[in-house]
């Protein structure tokens, strides 16, 4: 019995040396992807569990210093961690361009005095017009109302103008109660004068710079055949009667009115979105939103007003 006790330390040291060699062998085969198992290793692995952990071969490899730890660390990282791209810098929304097809008068070709091409211009200046008071104010300045529109067009005021830009057509101005005005063959000085008169009869007017930025301009002329729109230019039938010609101008004016009004509504919506742009960013980053109850109710009211 005493001899057996004396041999016990030597047996334990021999088992530890054998376990270390087999442990390194297990590490090499686990990293290289080998799926073969030697029968003489499995018993050793069973006996060596109290000395060495085998739950993760990558942890053993990263701690081992006996063979190429850099290679093992690189393979471990590529398998345990996925690549994450850093978020890019937050850029401010660029300035939006005009929503109308021709936002500037300089976009249209220059109209010389010898050409038979005239100009039609549309503006949206306010949410609504007082057509009753506007009609009396225009009459006091020499602009007469034309009774050429049908009875169902009660929300439209048609005014005739003597100072025309070209002699090929008479001047006409369509005022829509929705806050839009369309000029047909009106010279520049008369247009500015009418716009000044219009300012006194606007309900919730828009910014002047935005009004002139979101305008709509089209060239028009007279030609053979039916009235049509060709490459952004209106061609009116030359043989039409005066009343029929007014009705066709009214149809185009109604479309231009909707175009400029839609552009103004979209611009107003953009301004509202810009005012609350920081709120989603703060919520996404889990920051506290610094808005009182009154501020929230004000934003809700602005949103309903846009509807």
TrEMBL record:
Disordered: annotated segments = 20-39, 80-108
Give start and end of each DUF155 domain.
Answer: 173-307
Give me the Gene Ontology terms describing cellular component.
mitochondrion
Membrane spanning segments where?
none
Q: Which GO terms describe its biological process?
A: positive regulation of mitochondrial translation
Q: Name one Pfam family in it.
A: DUF155
This protein's source sits in the domain of life called Eukaryota
Note the coiled coil stretches, chain numbering.
none
PANTHER family associated with the record: REQUIRED FOR MEIOTIC NUCLEAR DIVISION PROTEIN 1 HOMOLOG (PTHR16255)
The record's family statement is: Belongs to the RMD1/sif2 family.
Know the name of this protein? DUF155 domain-containing protein
State the species of origin: Engystomops pustulosus (Tungara frog)
């Amino acid at each position: 019995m005493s001899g057996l006790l004396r041999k016990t330390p030597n047996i334990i040291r021999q088992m530890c040396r054998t376990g270390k060699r087999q442990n390194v062998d297990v590490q090499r085969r686990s990293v290289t992807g080998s799926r073969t198992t030697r029968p003489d290793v499995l018993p050793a692995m069973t006996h060596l569990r109290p000395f060495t952990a085998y739950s993760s071969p990558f942890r053993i490899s990263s701690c081992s210093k006996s063979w190429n730890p850099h290679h093992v660390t690189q393979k471990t990282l590529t398998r345990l961690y996925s690549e994450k791209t850093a978020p890019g810098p937050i850029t401010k929304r660029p300035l939006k361009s005009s929503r109308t097809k021709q936002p500037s008068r300089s976009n249209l070709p220059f109209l010389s005095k010898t050409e038979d091409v005239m100009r039609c211009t549309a503006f949206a200046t306010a949410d609504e017009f007082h057509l009753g008071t506007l009609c009396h104010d225009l009459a006091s300045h020499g602009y007469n109302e034309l009774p050429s529109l049908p009875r169902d067009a009660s929300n439209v005021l048609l005014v005739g103008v003597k100072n025309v830009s070209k002699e090929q057509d008479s001047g006409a101005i369509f005022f829509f109660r929705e806050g839009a005005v369309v000029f047909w063959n009106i010279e520049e000085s008369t247009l500015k004068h009418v716009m000044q008169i219009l300012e006194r009869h606007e309900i919730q007017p828009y910014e002047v710079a935005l009004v002139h930025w979101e305008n709509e301009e089209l060239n028009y002329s007279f030609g053979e055949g039916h009235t049509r729109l060709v490459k952004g230019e209106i061609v009116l039938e030359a043989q039409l009667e005066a009343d029929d010609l007014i009705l066709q101008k009214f149809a185009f004016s109604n479309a231009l009115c909707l175009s400029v009004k839609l552009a103004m509504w979209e611009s107003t919506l953009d301004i509202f979105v810009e005012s609350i742009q920081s709120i989603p960013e703060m919520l996404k980053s889990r920051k506290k939103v610094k808005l009182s109850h009154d501020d929230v109710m004000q934003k809700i009211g602005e949103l309903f007003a846009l509807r």
